[in-house]
Amino acid sequence: MAMNNQGRPSQPGAADAFDLPTISGDRGLDHEEPLIFELGRVGQCGVDFPPVSISDDRLGGQRRQGAIGLPGLSEPEIVRHYVRLSRMNYAIDAGLYPLGSCTMKHNPRLNEKLARLPGFGDLHPLAPASASQGALALISELMGWLTKLTGMPAVAMSPKAGAHGELCGLLAIRAAVASRGENRPRVLVPESAHGTNPATAAFAGFTVDEVKATPEGRVDLDDLRTKLGPDVAAFMLTNPNTCGLFERDIIAIAELVHEAGAYFYCDGANYNAIAGRVRPGDLGIDAMHINLHKTFSTPHGGGGPGAGPVVLSARLAAFAPLPLLVHDEKGFRLIEELEGVPEGAKPFGRMSAFHGQMGMFVRALAYMLSHGRDGIRQASEDAVLSANYVLASLKDVMSAPFEGPCMHEVLFDDSWLAGTGVTTLDFAKAMIDEGYHPMTMYFPLVVHGAMLIEPTESESKESVDNFIHVLRVMAEEVKAGKKERFEGAPRLAPRRRLDETAASRKPVLRWKGE
Ligand SMILES: *Cc1c(COP(=O)(O)O)cnc(C)c1O
Asked: Whose CA is nearest to atom 3 of ligand 1?
């Protein structure tokens, strides 16, 4: 019997009716939903307020002269509006989410429960240290886990995401270079790097130079050697890299970078492949951000929230940004001002108004404590195993650009699609009709028509098997010249093919009404 992607029997013919015109605009339980401004009626209100009589002088002459056009809806209409919108989203709670590089793993409900404990959830960021000892102790404990797991002596907790962590790391490096009285305006990044790496370097005021990849998909050491020099501040590397491959020469890379007097930045977004197994500090890394919302299972997507703490080597620790968390006989406290910093500390400034994303900290620590070091190691190993299982199961029908096993994500290219008339985009969009979020497409750029699949460790073997089955049948159809499924996909989604270029180049972010 055919199974759908959740392992339930699929319903043959269930999609037959979708070509009938709809009367309501909705299609079954797939709801169409206008903007709230289009739905709302002027004068309608979800609650009944008693008449107010606020005198003009109490409002200082600021009384509103006319309606401001807020949409009016009854309470059930408002609830329905947001529930309907939420159902248009794909989420990890709806199905396997194979988006490579993003580590869309299950977010354990235990983490959610703990993050909502009133002592953490209701704490105001401006509460005095005397009223927030527990929260500060939790941050301190999380810092301990991060420094021990990575083998790095210091960690900055305030960055709010991976990209923000990159900025924090490069600003620390810039401060360290300046403190040596040097001028190093260049940052090197491999050509396979995530777009945030060169963007961060440019934003921090550096010029960016690309380092070539070898035919094996790894850093070309000779090219790195020629590009390094006394004007280079840092080399930024992702390991495992964005092709899902471990940079085997990382120790030699670190030595080259340090010999040139530069710092070694590691993009830690792929830490999920090595957490508990490899300590980045042992590899010679000077700064690395950790996406708590990837490796440590705090929820992400839709732009946040995230958390990107940055671990720092002894060479950079002094430059960590404010606030600094200290513990002395009076308990925990945050040092917020340059005047109060301990001897030797030279913070480069601060990354954000407060000390970080408390909700993410609670979730990440809950994940760590519930897994333990061995459990984290097991999670990394299972993530790598899942990806290799996908690779081994599909490499006869799809094409992998690089030889050998992968780490926690598997990269295919589009050479197997050559001459079929089906593109990476068509294939990915057809996955939506099968109830899956597409894999990461066209990234990394070093591979033509890239498809980057990260199953993560939190999927069961049955779930990964169903996913493989769907991709295999689709791939076989492509090869047999059966293109119906791919032309014009997705069909069973609230929206069909969008103009993605226009969506990012000419975004319409404001509803203007009539
Ligand atoms: C996700 C990711 C980033 C950026 O992290 P955000 O938390 O989204 O800012 C950087 N590099 C790589 C390789 C990533 O996968």
From this structure: 162
- What mean pLDDT do residues 337-341 have? 95
Q: Ligand 1 centroid to 85 CA: how many Å?
A: 26
User: What's the pLDDT at 225?
Assistant: 98
Its sign, for the CA torsion 338, 342, 346, 347, is: negative
Ligand 1 atom nearest residue 306's Cα: 7
Taking the centre of ligand 1 as the mean of its atom positions, its distance from the CA of residue 258, in whole angstroms, is 25
Fold of 110-366: Aspartate Aminotransferase; domain 2 (3.40.640)
Say whether pLDDT at 468 is over 60.
Answer: yes
Rounded to the nearest integer, the mean pLDDT of the chain is 93
CA of 144 to the centre of ligand 1 (A): 23
Q: Which of 101, 168, 292 to mutate to test the pocket of ligand 1 (most atoms within 8 A of CB)?
A: 101
What sign does the CA torsion over 191, 195, 200, 203 have? positive
Residue corresponding to tokens 């002094």: 318
Q: DSSP string of 39-107?
A: H--TT--SS-PPP----TTTTTT----S--------HHHHHHHHHHHHHTS--TTTS---BTTS-----
Q: Which residue reads 């689709």 in tokens?
A: 474
Q: Give tens-digit pLDDT for 1-11.
A: 455 666 555 55
| Best residue among 267, 298, 445 to mutate for probing ligand 1, ranked by most atoms within 8 Å of CB | 267
Angle between helices 358-394 and 461-479 (to 10 degrees): 50
Q: How far is the CA of 55 from the centre of ligand 1 (A)?
A: 53
Q: 3-state class of 327 per DSSP?
A: strand
| Residue nearest to ligand 1 atom 8, measured at CA | 162
Q: Which CATH architecture has domain 375-495?
A: Alpha-Beta Complex (3.90)
What tens digit of pLDDT does each residue of 24-75 get?
888 777 888 999 989 988 878 888 888 877 776 777 888 888 878 888 999 9
The full length of the chain comes to 514
3-class SS of residue 12 = coil
Domain ranges in the chain? 110-366, 375-495
